[in-house]
Each structure stands twice: as structure tokens, then as C-alpha cells.
């Protein structure tokens, strides 16, 4: 995601001391991914922000997506002030990607003997297990505790109100039958 009026990571001209041109970075990833063709889609201009966005998809060994933010400077676009939400679009791109060496990523989903399902339903986080739930803790990616709840006895499902916690990835630590199980969940605005 690069703004065409970005003075720090410009599309053309002279790169800054420590950063390359946006076009050079795009060309690097096109070459790296063996891009053979591209599709350009102009996204609907619905926000009154003087910025339009072109989504460019390069096909090859691995997909490369570029969001050319026409008229944007060095800024993070977000909905509803802008036509796109950079955080959501990045998540949508990376959510099905797998790190080639998961043991080095630093966040591993814990395997446990309990079957656990964690998902968003409207404004609630739903946790379901095949064994008794004891506790649920929700952390943001910086490790800040966002929510904590103790389960009633003999329950296999808990629902936590998300409040204003949407549009982020959270870690859900769940104590199931005296074993901690951790899952990553993307929370989205509905």
C-alpha cells in the first residue's frame, strides 16, 4: 500500500536515504514472484478524501497485490474516512499464508487433546470446546489483556462481548480441562 504523493517512499524521483522507491520495491517482488501479468481494478471512490485507490494484482509463482493510493501521502488509510482499510486488506491478504518455518514465527497455536473452536459471531467472541471450559483470556498482539472470563461449571461454550475490539488479530488463551490452548482470531467489524 503506497501513496503516489508519499514524500518518504516516493513512486518516482529520488529515494530517501534509507528507503527505496515504491516502484523499485514493487519490481523486486514482481521479479521474486515470477509475475507474468497483472490486473488493475479501480476501487469505488466513496469516501470524500481526495484519494482514489487502484488494486493491482500480479500473478506468478505467488500473488503480489499492490494498492496504489492515488493522491495519498505517507498515511494509513482506514474505513470510513477512506475507501479502503489498510489493516483489513493486509489481514485478508495474509490470513491464508503459512510461514515456511512455523517454529520461528513466535506465535504457535497450542495443540491440545481438547477440540476447540473460537470465532466471531456479531459482536461476540464465541469459544466452544468438547470438554469443560474453565477460563478464557483475550490478548492483543502486543500482549495487553483485553478480556478475561471464568467459565461457569460444566460448560463447553462461552460468549464474550467484543465491545470496540474489532479489526485486529487477537490471541485467545483458553483453559480447557486444565490445559491451556491458544488460538489466533481475526476480529472484524460487522
Outline the structure in words.
- The chain is mostly beta strands and 190 residues long.
- It is 11% helix and 38% strand.
- The protein contains two helices and eleven strands.
- The chain has helices at residues 22-33, 86-94, and strands at residues 2-3, 37-42, 52-59, 64-70, 116-121, 124-129, 133-140, 145-150, 157-161, 168-176, 179-187.
- It has a four-stranded mixed β-sheet with strand order 1-4-3-2, with helices on one face. Strands 8-7-10-11 form a four-stranded antiparallel β-sheet. A three-stranded antiparallel β-sheet has the order 5-6-9, with no helix packed on it.
- Strand 5 and strand 6 form a beta hairpin.
- It is elongated, with a radius of gyration of 21 Å.
- The mean pLDDT is 85.
Question: Uncertain regions: pLDDT < 50 for 5+ in a row?
Answer: none
Summarize model confidence as the mean pLDDT.
85
Indicate the structural class: mainly beta
Distance between the termini: 23 Å
Q: Indicate the percent of residues in helices.
A: 10-25%
- Give helix and strand order, one letter per element, not per position: EHEEEHEEEEEEE
- Rg, rounded, reads 21 Å
Share of β-strand residues: 35-45%
Number of alpha- plus pi-helical segments: 2
The main sheet comes to: 4 strands, mixed
